[in-house]
Design a protein that fits this description.
By secondary structure, the protein is of the alpha+beta class. It is built from 13 helices and 10 strands. The two termini are 31 Å apart.
């Protein structure tokens, strides 16, 4: 059928209405997880949170990597603790398959050869009175992506564990983004310009995402202020200077293109390396969270102007000065926010608003279709995991756009699935993890 034929539009309109009814009928109750914009000290009394350290009872051991033929040391590496959820804090849901009380602990390892280590532990009691469990002597690996701060070492606390972010819960209706595809008439699939199936799937996903955003926007009454870029506040703490230098040096040490750079760029790289050495020497006498005085901020502003121009001349995406400054600043803001001492540099209101807006991804201000971070409901179909696990329970979904350093990649989604029968037995030993990117 010609797309200019009036009958084409009438048939497409009728099919879209049928599709919308199928998507609406697929609604399942779910729980939206909203974290704070900046982390808190480890001793913060939150009962449900991402990162930090778990409050594990003595009888539960810290999970380790499953043996897969590696050497003995690798087989005993600890998994990264990513979340603790007090189930009594969840909103009341009809047909909630989760226990009504108790605590869930989530641990994750680095994927290798399409295998992902994941462990979920369940404790029947409340964990808020339990002591924090320190990680094993051999530090955990980072999560499913390269760490956001690859220059950190496992000798540093931020290189051993994720920052602690308390979370709040909101119930909402989750919609299946492949609902109705089996009932879609072949004639409708052939009406699209390109591949009928791909276009139909895209249409369904858009319908589900739109309904989900509308639902969440109605539930979440608090709308964060728009993110703003703080001005002249780059070097608010000595750690920003040190970590900008370390980020640049890390890329230069590991990037293959550096060795093969032409002579003119080699001269530029040598000058950049010398400058970063001077920054590190100057910052070495100060803690990362120590505030910079006004002369230092003025000096580094001039230094960063030179560095920004030097990096731009190299024209390498991995040495993007804006990205380097953003990541170093976020790291130091997290260090300051999680430092319980009075010595930490104050974080400006502009920085706080910026990270609060990033974390919230509120439907009223963020119109993208990024997957929500949630418990239960339908998983978002980045590829085919929700279709393959359509009979399973979605235990946890974390979007790569959510801003957590252990899951930091736009366009990707991490999902943990459990069989209903296993969940009914409170057996969390066979949880499966899927990690998909568009």
């Amino acid at each position: 059928m010609d797309i200019d034929d009036p009958l084409y539009e009438r048939r497409m309109t009728a099919w879209r209405k049928t599709l919308q009814r199928a998507v609406k009928a697929s609604a399942r109750r779910a729980v939206f997880l909203q974290r704070t914009g900046l982390p808190v000290p480890l001793a913060h009394p939150a009962r449900s949170y991402f990162g930090g350290l778990p409050r594990l009872p003595k009888r539960l051991a810290w999970p380790r990597v499953a043996g897969r033929g590696k050497d003995a040391a690798e087989n005993h590496r600890a998994l990264l603790f990513i979340a603790q959820i007090d189930l009594a804090e969840l909103p009341r849901l009809s047909r909630n398959p989760l226990p009504s009380a108790g605590t869930l602990y989530f641990f994750l390892g680095v994927p290798e050869d399409d295998h992902h280590d994941v462990r979920v532990l369940y404790y029947k009691g409340r964990a808020d009175a339990l002591p924090l469990r320190q990680p094993p002597a051999q530090p955990p690996e980072h999560g499913p992506y390269w760490p956001r701060w690859p220059w950190l070492t496992t000798d540093e606390p931020a290189g051993q564990m994720a920052f602690k972010y308390p979370m709040a819960f909101t119930k909402f209706d989750s919609y299946c983004d492949f609902a109705g595809i089996d009932d879609c008439p072949a004639s409708a699939l052939t009406l699209f310009r390109e591949s009928g199936l791909e276009a139909a799937v895209f249409e369904i996903r858009e319908q589900a995402a739109r309904l989900q955003r509308t639902e969440l926007a109605a539930k979440l009454t608090r709308t964060p202020r728009r993110s703003s870029t703080p001005r002249d506040e780059l070097a608010f703490a000595w750690g920003v200077i040190a970590h900008c230098a370390r980020a640049i040096r890390c890329e230069m040490e590991h990037a293959l293109w550096v060795k093969d750079a032409p002579p003119a760029q080699q001269v530029q790289l040598a000058a950049i390396s010398q400058r970063t050495t001077e920054w590190l020497q100057r910052a070495a006498a100060h803690p990362d969270v120590a505030a910079c005085d006004k002369p230092t901020r003025k000096w580094f502003k001039q230094e960063w102007t030179w560095m920004r121009l030097a990096l731009q001349e190299l024209a390498r995406r991995s040495l993007d000065p804006g990205l380097i400054a953003d990541r170093a600043t976020q790291l130091v803001c997290c260090l300051c926010a999680s430092d319980a001492s009075a010595a930490a540099a104050p974080i400006s209101a502009a920085h706080r608003r910026r990270y609060e807006a990033r974390a919230a991804r509120h439907p009223k201000t963020d119109t993208t279709a990024d997957p929500p971070t949630q418990l239960l409901g339908h998983g978002t179909s980045v590829q085919w995991a929700p279709i393959q696990h359509t009979k399973d329970v979605l235990l946890l979904q974390v979007s790569g756009a959510y801003g957590l350093e252990w899951c930091d990649h736009f366009g990707c989604v991490l999902q943990l699935w459990i069989k209903p029968a296993a969940l009914a037995r409170r057996d969390f030993s066979k949880v499966q993890v899927t990690l998909e990117c568009d």
